[in-house]
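Aim 2, interim progress: modelling of the nicotinamide-adenine-dinucleotide-bound target.
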Amino acid sequence: MSAFHGKSVLITGGASGIGAATARRAAAGGGRVLIADTDEQAGPALAEEIGALFHRTDVGDFDQMKAAVDAAAEAHGGLDVLFCNAGIAGPSEGLIDQGIPYDLDRYRKTVAVNLDGPVHGVHAALPLMRGRQGASILVTSSMAGLFAPPSGEVYAATKHALIGFVRSLALTLADDPLTVNAICPGYVDTPMIAPLLPMIGELGLGGTVVAPEKVAELAERIVAERGSGDAWLIAEGVCAPFPFHD
Ligand code: NAD
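Predicted structure of the complex, ligand included:
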């Protein structure tokens, strides 16, 4: 039986890519899914297709994030799985990226979505999830949260920060049945990296691309296994907590 079966599952960034693949998997496995996303076209369309709810949510705004959590809890009888997955990346996040000028608004937006989003999500959901048997928080970090890539410094900073957040939170929750883990994908075939695909071999960070369904599979595995505080690296041929050990 699916680890999502009968569970109330909230997925931010669930309208596309990794979030959409996980929403499909959770719904197919008998989960009751709420997609929280800014995309008011793809989000409701996917929700209708898989029998989920859509809640228009900007994760960088705490009140909107809390409203999404409350909507999921009210419609689905609480919250069992919070997947803080929404994230953005873009060319102007590099500090010295091919002469692109420093864009303060873009910097603040990247931090708001990639870091504030999960922090808001956790704060909104913790009162509902603490002490709940079988409950899980997942946060999408990145391979760029484990290794320092040669550009996209701000993106890497937010993704490193998420791993610290998750590891610390897991220690805080050590005596609680609620688990918290980070997923650190390498390259995943989603709209986010479509512009990078032609040059991925030159980027020197692995060079291979996995399907979003593989990341969704890992999300379910983490929910099922009940470990906490891990940062799971998932790339071609690798799916394990980092740092690796025997
Ligand atoms: P994607 O662009 O396909 O999906 C991102 C989703 O987030 C979209 O539906 C978008 O509408 C939504 N979103 C953007 N800003 C939002 C906001 N403020 N509030 C709510 N939703 C918002 O990208 P993806 O590749 O599926 O990315 C998902 C996560 O995986 C991100 O955190 C990303 O950083 C991470 N990641 C992706 C890759 C990759 O290679 N694709 C690698 C490592 C990590």
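The longest helix spans residues 104-129. Helices lie at 17-28, 42-50, 62-76, 104-129, 153-172, 212-225.
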